[in-house]
Amino acid sequence: MKNNIKRFIKDIIPVLLGVLIALWINNWNENRKDKKYISNFYRSLKKEFKDTDKEIINKTPSQRILIDSLNFYSNNKNVQLITIIEKAGGVNGPLIKLNYWNALSKSKIELIEYDKLALLTEIEENNELLKYKRNKLLDFIYANLTETGQKEKILMKLMLEELIRTQNNVQDGIRKILKYDAKSS
Question: Scanning 19, 49, 116, 181, which has the fewest C-beta atoms within 10 Å of its C-beta?
Fold first, then answer.
């Protein structure tokens, strides 16, 4: 009986060691793949965020021109909102790119450090708020295109200023991620 137990132990130990080594190698390989995936993700996200930052920088001056035009024509009862918008070059807004974040958030979100995850979530929430405000602004514009009153012009100006504030919040979050990424590189 003792010999059977000894033989069993002698036979099982190499098998157990083999299984444990195989598991360790598999875990090591999975961790390596995850690190490569996250590294590629951050590289792509960084490019996307740099493009978005430039987009915000490029679009904000035209938004400010529209605000200045609304100020300039606010007391002129002969000028319609549509005319002011046309003279200012239209209603421009930046394209906020979150494609890589959206893809990762649906697959391997557990691989992201908490601090970065919190920042990315905040950017996404601000972007959703930005979309909401942009839609409200467009609804207002379409409903008041031919209006000439000071009230409508001031209200549109305030809506644009609020839109810019939210864009700046998105931009601040993006810059925090880019700085955070630069620190950890």
Answer: 19
Helices (H) and strands (E) in the chain, counts: 5, 0
* 3-class secondary structure, 86: helix
Rounded to two decimals, the pTM is 0.81
Q: In the numeric block, which tokens belong to residue 26?
A: 């598999």
Residue 4 lies in a domain: no
Cα–Cα dist 85/72, whole Å = 12
Tell me whether residue 16 is in a domain.
no
Q: Is residue 24 part of a domain?
A: no
79 in helix, strand or coil? coil
Q: Render each residue's pLDDT in the chain as its tens digit; 185 residues.
A: 777 878 877 888 888 888 889 899 998 998 898 888 888 888 989 999 999 999 999 999 999 999 999 999 999 999 999 999 999 999 999 999 998 888 887 887 888 888 988 999 999 999 999 999 999 999 999 999 999 999 999 999 999 999 999 999 999 999 999 887 555 54
- The Cβ of residue 100 has, within 10 Å, a number of other Cβ atoms equal to 19
Task: From 166, 168, 161, select the one nearest 68 (Cα to Cα).
Answer: 161
Domain span at residue 60 reads 37-184
**Within-domain flag for 129:** yes
Q: Which residues, 6 or more positions from 183, have their beta carbon under 8 angstroms from its beta carbon?
A: none
* Angle between helix 2-73 and 150-184 (nearest 10): 150
